[in-house]
């Protein structure tokens, strides 16, 4: 009997994990007459609330691009100034953007649901070295820290990885393929 109950509990946990994970389609928004931002978001359950994570690329007509990851955690009021990405076993430390205004301006409407709720929101710069690793990644895990936890670990699902890779390869002219205007 205990074995059956244990199996049911494990099954329910597995099902609920799937139910609380959602990856968006790629969103493209105009930032100006000559620049756009591409974003893919994933929302998952966390012991401290719902975690929204987004990978974004801002690119202009000249091909200048920069990348960031946005984390938003409802019910939490603090996120550590660093996060780690483990890409196919290699670890990279990302730094929080100290002046996030440029990212907030380029943030997509998909993440607005986290803007009006209390909680922590951080933007982490993604250096080109890490972008190059994401291009061919098979597995990505991020480790972040909050006031209530130490080293919370979340893996990106295959859809989030695939769509992030697609964003990396997109240029300004790709906007008509993704535009959600």
Protein described:
Strands 1, 2, 3, 4, 5 and 8 form a six-stranded antiparallel β-sheet that branches. Strands 7-6-9-10 form a four-stranded antiparallel β-sheet, covered by helices on one side. It is α+β, with helices and mostly antiparallel strands. It has six helices and ten strands. The protein has helices at 2-19, 101-106, 112-115, 128-135, 158-169, 175-178, and strands at 22-23, 27-32, 35-46, 49-60, 65-74, 82-87, 90-95, 119-126, 140-144, 152-155.
Strands, helices and their partners?
Layout: H1 2-19, E1 22-23, E2 27-32, E3 35-46, E4 49-60, E5 65-74, E6 82-87, E7 90-95, H2 101-106, H3 112-115, E8 119-126, H4 128-135, E9 140-144, E10 152-155, H5 158-169, H6 175-178
């Amino acid at each position: 009997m205990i074995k059956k109950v244990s199996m049911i509990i494990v099954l329910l946990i597995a099902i609920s994990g799937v139910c609380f994970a959602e990856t968006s389609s790629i969103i493209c928004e105009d930032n100006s007459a000559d620049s756009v931002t591409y974003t893919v978001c994933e929302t998952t359950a966390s012991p401290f609330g719902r975690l929204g994570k987004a990978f974004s690329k801002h690119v202009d007509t000249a091909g200048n691009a920069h990348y960031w990851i946005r984390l938003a955690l409802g019910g939490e009021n603090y996120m550590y100034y660093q996060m780690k990405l483990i890409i196919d076993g290699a670890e990279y430390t990302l730094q929080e953007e100290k002046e996030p205004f440029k990212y907030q301006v380029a943030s997509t409407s998909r993440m607005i649901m986290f803007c009006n709720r209390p909680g922590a929101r951080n933007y982490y710069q993604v250096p080109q070295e890490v972008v190059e690793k994401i291009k061919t990644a098979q597995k990505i895990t991020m480790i972040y820290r909050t006031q209530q936890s130490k080293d919370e670990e979340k893996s990106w699902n295959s859809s989030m990885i695939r769509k992030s890779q697609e964003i990396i390869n997109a240029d300004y002219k790709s906007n008509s393929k993704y535009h959600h205007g």
